[in-house]
Amino acid sequence: MTDFRDVLRAARGSGTLDGAHFEAVARGAADQSVPDYQLASWLAAVYARGLSPEETFAFTMALARSGGPLEPSPGAVDKHSTGGVGDKTTLVVAPLVASVGIPVAKMSGRGLAHTGGTLDKLESIPGFRVNLSRDEWAQVVERVGVAVAAQSRELAPADGRLYALRDATATVDSPALIAASIMSKKIAGGARALVLDVKVGRGSFNSSVAEGRRLAQLMLEVASRAGIRAEALLTNMEEPLGQTVGNALEVNEAWATLQGGGPADLRAVVLAVSAAMVAQARGAGGPDAAAAAGREVRAALDGGQARDKFREWVQAQGGDVDQVERGLPLAPAALVTWAGEAGVVSRVDPLLIGRAAMEIGAGRRVAADVVNPRVGVAVLVKTGDRLSPGAPVGRVYAESPSEREQAVRRVREAVKVSAGAAALAPRPPVVWEALSTPH
Ligand code: URA
User: Fold this and answer.
1) What strands lie across the sheet with 392-397, from one edge to the other?
2) d(CA 262, CA 276)
3) Ligand 1 close to Cβ of residue 156 (< 6 A)
4) What pLDDT score does 134 carry?
5) Is the pLDDT of residue 432 over 70?
6) Active-site positions?
7) CATH number of residue 96's parent domain
8) Mapping DSSP to helix (H, G, I), strand (E, B) and coil, where does residue 1 land?
């Protein structure tokens, strides 16, 4: 049996870490034989030293195999986001892609740091079950064409444990740890085609396009070594995606988007990611294939096929879809109005908005916290909008008056209004660029 102190010494040293090293970490995390404090110490060491692409691949494979032998996915394509604020893309994309006949089998995560998690959002739908066995996951995909599950004992369990520890030890924003965490779930799920939504901006774990590109390239390299066809889209996270941050709020917004409405930026990311998934699933590269896939998914979103598929999917995983149609219940709301001078919105800080939502219970401060689905923040303005004094800028949903007041202050801090020409700088694009593994 490995003495984990030797593993820790190696991680703190400067030598190359090999497959056996990462197997010891992944096994110890999955079978609980290594305690939290030793795993946390290992994460801190790796966070500080970084991993080479070879080490990242070896770690990814060790995590992917932590639930047993790898099996092919029941779906044809998968997607994953590196994490952002207000990112409810999966809730729309998964049924949309399934509605054009491409099965989607996805494994998702929970909220991490100030970013929300798809599983928490789905669990705000009464009855929705994310803890599916591998067999159930495959059966739902077979029957409905789409299923989203949490990690389980069979699906990259080591990542599940390390993910929660990274959140608690502020070791989330490491490119190697993010790449291994995401790619291990994709490989364990058996993906053959994949689209990565790499967020860039203050609300993400990549502060610049160059940083996002490096993370995208690292994940594409892991995908390529694992035999997965993949594309990465660098998308904007300089402000929250859509208008809502909080679990039930985001499901309500996703439902509006599935009805053909929803905020323009969310719709644009949904269409870009979905088109890329369709093109990857068909193994079709190039601008013509991408344009054809784009037309197909737009028609399915506007024609209601994606909405119908969402209904089927939610019901198949035990969720009360009629409740979604009626609107999921929310905590009492307070309107936030603009208290400053007239001007143009120059920033809606996604980090502050993400933290504001987390503080009132939409996310977790520590892994054991229980999220409250009813709370969150709606931000009604975008960078570049004109504001006059007293104009509505947001709405906060919280359980107590003191929490509402705190969240109102945070939203006011997050929105910056400027009268100068700087405020009129062009809005960043929703999608910065796309990179892919060779076809
Ligand atoms: N999503 C994941 O699954 N893991 C990360 O580390 C970040 C985002």
Assistant:
1) 244-245, 376-379, 392-397, 333-337
2) 20
3) no
4) 85
5) yes
6) 80, 159, 166, 181, 185
7) 3.40.1030.10
8) coil
* 396 and 305 within one domain: no
> What local confidence, expressed as pLDDT, does residue 219 receive?
97
Do residues 170 and 299 share a domain? Answer: yes
Q: 188: CA distance to ligand 1 center in Å?
A: 14
- What six digits make up the tokens of 235? 């998308």
The answer, yes or no, to whether any atom of ligand 1 lies below 6 A from the CB of 112, is: yes
What string of DSSP letters covers 270-318? HHHHHHHHHHHHTT--SHHHHHHHHHHHHHHHHTTHHHHHHHHHHHHTT
Atom of ligand 1 nearest to the CA of 83: 8
Sequence-distant (6+) residues with CB within 8 A of 97 are 77, 104, 146, 274, 277, 278, 281, 297
DSSP state of 357: H
386: domain CATH number is 3.90.1170.30
Residue with tokens 């989203």: 148
Closest CA to 298 of 260, 243, 264, 325: 260
Cα–Cα nearest to 271, from 79, 37, 97, 20? 97
**Overall domain count for the chain:** 3
Q: Residue 336: what pLDDT?
A: 96
- Compute the distance from residue 338 Cα to the ligand 1 centre, in Å: 35
Is 58 a member of any domain?
A: no
Percent of the chain's residues with pLDDT above 70: 97
Q: What is the pLDDT of residue 92?
A: 98
Query: Structural domain of residue 271, as residue ranges?
Result: 78-325+431-436
Is the C-beta atom of 181 inside 6 A of ligand 1?
Answer: yes
Same domain, 257 and 276: yes
| Phi, psi dihedrals of residue 278, rounded to the nearest 5° | -65, -45
pTM for this one? 0.92
Mutate to test the pocket of ligand 1, among 162, 178, 205 (most ligand atoms within 8 A of CB): 178
Average pLDDT of the chain, as a whole number: 92
Whether pLDDT at 422 is above 60:
no
pLDDT reported for residue 70: 85
Q: How confident is the model at residue 74 (pLDDT cuts 50, 70, 90)?
A: confident
The proportion of the chain whose per-residue pLDDT surpasses 90, expressed as a percent, equals 79
Give the Å distance between the CA of 389 and the centre of ligand 1. 40
C-alpha radius of gyration, the chain, whole number? 21
Nearest Cα residue to 74 out of 223, 156, 196, 189: 189
Instruction: Of 170-179, 187-196, 318-327, give the range with the top mean pLDDT.
Output: 318-327
